[in-house]
Design brief:
- The longest helix is centred in the N-terminal third of the chain and has 31 residues, at 67-97.
- The protein has 8 helices and 9 strands.
- The strands form 3 sheets. Strands 3, 4, 5 and 6 form a 4-stranded mixed sheet that branches. A 3-stranded mixed sheet has the order 8-7-9.
- 37% of the residues lie in helices and 14% in strands.
- It has helices at 67-97, 108-127, 141-148, 171-182, 206-210, 226-241, 259-278, 304-310, and strands spanning 39-41, 50-52, 153-158, 161-168, 189-192, 195-196, 247-252, 287-291, 312-317.
- By secondary structure, the chain is an alpha/beta fold.
Length: 318
């Protein structure tokens, strides 16, 4: 029961000697196998000999209570933890119950979204005044601009009526611009106010260069007066001397009478001048007669003196 004092070789065999472990362990003095004898024990398994106050009691434990001692404490601790968890859960539930269920919950995401929407709305409101209405129908203006591009001529469309202005170096260029615009679908009429050679130092009128007096005609007639023939003689001399100069013979009238009648009269007068100069030895292919009627007045047709200025023949260098 308590074991005999002395040396034990083996618990099973009781041989005298030292026990290395529980099976063989070397034990010095053993007081009681049940309570643990005071003495030296090498180790639980085989371990080296060491000191132990008491092996203990497997059932009750000499140095402690064992499982039976701490199990009630463990169960109590678990119960206490569960109780605290339940209390915390109920406290959170009470706080939640105090919140109005119908009140909206604002989250960080919702706040960012609201701010972004407000910023976008403010941007739209700020940019709104910059919006412009779509331009009205430009009519034939785009086609006119395209037809006259690079020609030095400007065309302004007012509905189906187009007015041409600018300066070109020849009558052919002037006529070409008018023809190009007339061919546009939607153009009803063309006011050709293009000037031939007025901005070119070499493409000026012989009238200005020679300071010629006006070439006059009988009233409403293409018959050249004697005074007019004297002026044409000066022009013939110039053209004879400058054989490389070609001219347009431009006929103009004042605003009295019908447009069509004035246009016809100006054309006939320019042709009469050509015929006269041909009689002076100037080749016909060097001269181009062109009547403009009342379309290109030099001054307003508001006085008799101004009307006399507008009735003229110009030799435009080509």
């Amino acid at each position: 029961g308590k074991g005999a004092a002395g040396k034990v070789g083996d618990v099973g065999k009781g041989a005298a000697g030292k026990v290395g472990d529980v099976g063989k362990g070397s034990v010095g003095k053993v007081g009681d196998v049940g309570k643990g004898a005071a003495g030296k024990v090498s180790g639980v398994g085989k371990g080296a000999v060491g000191k132990a106050g008491s092996v203990g009691d497997i059932a009750a434990g000499g140095g402690g209570r064992g499982i039976a001692g701490w199990l009630p404490w463990a169960i109590g601790a678990i119960a206490l933890v569960l109780l605290l968890a339940w209390l915390l859960s109920n406290c959170n539930g009470s706080d939640t119950d105090d919140v109005d269920a119908n009140a909206p919950v604002t989250t960080a995401t919702q706040t960012e979204t609201t701010e972004a929407e407000a910023e976008e709305e403010e941007t739209e409101t700020t940019e709104a005044p910059a919006t412009t209405e779509a331009p009205a129908d430009a009519g034939v203006q785009p086609e006119v601009d395209a037809a006259l591009g690079g020609s030095g001529v400007t065309g302004v469309a007012d509905g189906g009526v187009v007015t041409l202005t600018g300066t070109v170096d020849s009558v052919e260029a002037k006529d070409a611009a008018e023809a190009a615009v007339t061919a546009i679908d939607g153009v009803e009429s063309v006011n050709n106010e293009i000037v031939v050679g007025a901005d070119d130092a070499e493409a000026t009128t012989i009238n200005e260069e020679l300071s010629l007096d006006p070439i006059t005609f009988n009233v409403n007639s293409d018959q050249i007066t004697a005074e007019g023939q004297a002026v044409l003689d000066q022009a013939a001399e110039y053209l004879t001397t400058n054989g490389d100069v070609n001219v347009e013979i431009a006929g103009h009238t004042d605003s009295d009478g019908e447009d069509a009648s004035n246009l016809d009269l100006s054309q006939r007068r320019s042709e009469s001048v050509k015929t006269y100069l041909e009689g002076k030895g100037i080749a016909g292919d060097r001269m181009t007669p062109k009547g403009y009627g009342e379309a290109e007045p030099k001054v307003d047709n508001d006085t008799a003196a101004n009307k006399a200025i507008n009735r003229r023949i110009e030799f435009r260098v080509q």
